[in-house]
Amino acid sequence: MDDLFNDTWDLSMSTIIDIVNENQINKSVRSLPNDPNLFSTDLTFFGLTNYVKNLILKYKGIETLYDWQIDCLNLQAINQKRNLLYSLPTSGGKTLVAEILMLRELLIHKKNVIFVLPYVALAQEKVRSLAPFGLDLEFYVEEYVGGKGKYPPLKHIKKRSIYVCTTEKAAGLIESLLESKRLDEIGMLVVDEIHLIGESSRGPTLEMMLSKLMFVTKSIHIIAMSATVGNLHEIGDFLNAEVYTHNFRPVELAEYVKCEDTVYKISRAIDGNCYLEFNRKLNFNYSEDLQKNDPGLLGGLVREVIPEDSCLVFCPTRKQCSHFAMLICQAVNKNFKEIRKTEKLALLRALSEEGYGIVCTILKKTIPYGIAYHHSGLTNAERKLLEEAFLAGTISCICCTSTLAAGINLPAKRVIIFSPYVGKDFLKLSTYKQMSGRAGRKGLTTAGESYLVCQEIDMPKILGLLRSTMDRCESKMTADNFIRLTTSAIGLKVAIKKQDLMKLYNVTLYQIQNYEKENSLTVEQIVEQSLQKLKSLNAIKESLENGEYSLTHLASAAMTANLDVTDAQIVYENLMEAIGNGLILSNYLHLFYLITPFSAIEEIKIDRQNVISVYSELSSVEGKIAERIGITEVCLIQYSKNGKVSCISETIWERFLRSLIIFNLWNKKSIWEVSKKFDVSRGIIHNFLMRTAAFASSVQRFTEALKMEELEYFPCLLQKIIPRLSYCCTTELLQLMQLPAVKIGRAKQLLKAGYKNLQDVMNADPLTLVRSIDHLPRRVAYEIVAAAKLLMLEKAETLQEEADNIKTELNDNKNIAEFSFNEIENLPSSQ
To answer: Quick check: 190 pLDDT over 60?
Structure first.
């Protein structure tokens, strides 16, 4: 239990105050060029100075903008701060436009910005890449991912912030600002990949967040980016936004279909129709064994471009990714192992550090050839290292699933889509465009190539796909989502009467798309159903005098914590039961059970035999905790016989098993050991851990909001474990892992090299870091140092602001005391 109250992972207050007092910030952190034109009136770069333009060249290597970017930045919608939705094909340069607009908002309008990205990896990458700009232009870059991010955020007096968030964290951030009446601090909301509003998992969260925001204020400038979708203007109507589209690609894309050994070129006529023209016959002179192992000729197609150029191979399933990586190794020249040998060895060492001395056996075999696989079964750290290696040219071919096309920017000379199926489903046009759009790298290739591989039987479907119109983006709001929207709207006092709720529902994408559909529920019916459900859950109260609704105490705490009411009720019952029966704190298992998220239960399936093995290894204390939760040997007997338990709820059983995963990781078991023990992939375990950290953060805010004496120590307990849960590392590494792009392997290498904390890293020479850390790209090293400086600067200036506020309060109190004393002295003696 020592770690529970161990604060050594964080910077001590005295250390930061010393940095402020000794003016180390000016010497060590703020290495800012003293450009007198930084805030001059010579605003020649879209309202910004040429200093900002030069920073874009320095950090991004971009000297001139594309014509479409210039047109877009000069739109009336931008100048008049009207909402804007713009759409271009993959790799068209959408993000730079958004970044310029965010800088304008920060530097000119002096407002904070929320930047919403759909994936954790994208958000963390963006935090890192924005850090140098934040340091030079004097704004903060704050990360809201997993367990990171404070609700509401710290209020900075002197500087503005970009809050870089995943969708779920952005929703919580906006609600906290609404609740604390601080929404006016936000000037702009930028949403990347807005078309994911039509995705069933994160789409409703995004739709609810935007609907509430647009309902309560018109002053926040919404900028949304999208890949091409079939109903773009309908999404624009929902956002009340001007729509800008362009078909620009930085390099030409040649598209092909390969059927058996024949390649056809995809040609598009002026009328928009699509044709297949014979291009060539493939003959790679395969050996008999290779012909048998690779009848689809994948290895030959890859071999045509690597190692001089790069190639992405999109595979239908995760299992095929590793299989195809091994297959391609058989087809390429053995001399490939001598190319960039030093860099490949450094990559393997870096992977070993991330894996506690273990590297995937397949990657061990394929990386020497410059080939790797990439899917959600790998940890975020492993995937990040492989992505950096691909961009650096150390790896020239990655076999991946379709999610890579949407999640990160890895362009290649050639893209091979090895099947027109994603899992069991036939390819959608939007998915095909996203994958094929990764072909072509500006500055390195003059053109890109995509190959769609299929069987003869699928050719009619392929033609149908290529000639089809782009997929529509449809709202995925359900009854449960509307209940959550209603709870939030009432709790935040956005809409507290039935007619107000109807007005709110009318601005949702769901209602825009279902307004005239037959058999669809009316807004009044949806509102009534939601209210009735919340009444049945005892979550709302209705005033008989004016018909206004308010939340019950528990539902209000759930809203504050960004929890569903039903989930919050379970959390509350679990907490009270733990207190009533006695919370066991001789180790962390009981506490981990209480913060294991419900939403992850369906995603992790543990084999029956593994369950029996894991349960049999429980210590006496852990067995006692299991019994306290309600799990006995009877449960294990039932499970071993039937694969199910009936003596307790299945939710309790499943949550306890998953809490054992967290418990093992906490007790310094490597993710490899835990993956093997539970027979669950490393990537799924890592994602589950991130979700657990986020859920723990919600439980912490829930117990704080309840303000119950019985639960008053829970926020303190959870506050101490959330940082370690977010990273699952030893205490000494926690501070280093606050840095973007630093996972456990890099943190361990930094520590070995003598960089023990943020202060050490901020004073580091980036080139020395490159030499000290295996496979650390120079650009990433500079971004890590900049991020360390920015974090230190934020900590120091926050403390300085707090000190100034205390001084002001003390002076005010002193003046009041002096005034009162003088008044007493002037009183007549008779009084």
So the answer is: yes
